[in-house]
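Handout, section B. The chain below has 325 residues.
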Amino acid sequence: MITMDTDIKKQFFGIVLLLIAIAILSVLPMYVKDADPVIDEIEEIATAQIEEIEAVDPFSEITIVAKSAYVYDLLKEEVLYAKNEEIQMPLASVTKLMTALVANELVPEYNTVVISHDAISQEGDSGFYMNEKWRVKDLIDYMLISSSNDGARALASVASAFSTTTLPTDGVTRSDQFVDRMNARAIELGLVQTYFLNESGLDINGSTAGAYGSSRDMAILLGYVVDNYPHLLEATKYENLSVESLQDLSHSVLNTNVAVARIPGLIGSKTGYTELAGGNLVIAFDAGIGHPIVVSVLGSTIEDRFIDIDNLVWATIEQFGQIQN
């Protein structure tokens, strides 16, 4: 026995009705005087049916590799697409969105951060020098666009001093105190699946990630930043960044989001990748003037996260085109 899902049935019967309407239109004038009003009404019904048939949900026709994804309309407060959006997954460097938010809320942007040996010893080489001095805002920009683990640790160590007057005790570091504030902020924002073990999102070992959360939570987090601190995302719109530290040492870096140039109306983004997390990417873009959309994918691959985002962005744009038409 052949079965059809609801959408296919609806389209099938719509086509049948449309064919019947065309047949009636072709013979009606032969049997009915002054048939024009009736013909006009049938044509209106047929036209509406054609538009309904054509208006296929663009999200239903895409396939993504990501294990979890979420598309949210910030203006209308409406979910456009969801796939396993509440599953708790490793965040990798998407964590640094919260690092940037908390550092920005705790430390004035004109304050100075000194790069310590502890910061430089983090995984990866960001090109920093020992005791190099940075403005907080410049270091946040550099951390987000390059996904710098050194920068995340430097910000965490300095910002924690602004969040508490309690000095670190044995076994507790300034970084630990900062992570406590990150977790408190997650609770305040309603990120129910999110918690942090470090400020960078780096895997702690082969079975434990540095942070966990859902694609929905990350969309909420990025949406909060877009609404309240859009300047934090400014640097992430560009393919590269050149910045000087307070000692006039020049640093140039490429954006870890290689898809920035092909996302229309990009507001900001953050990548993430570790062995445990796979490929993560969260972006915000304008689907129209003043109409921000947030797209979050978790658990893709290092390459496919960009393709997943492309597919979701263009499905959103296509859906908006149908609404406007």
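Note. Residues 60 and 315 are 9 Å apart (CA to CA). Compare this with the example in section A.
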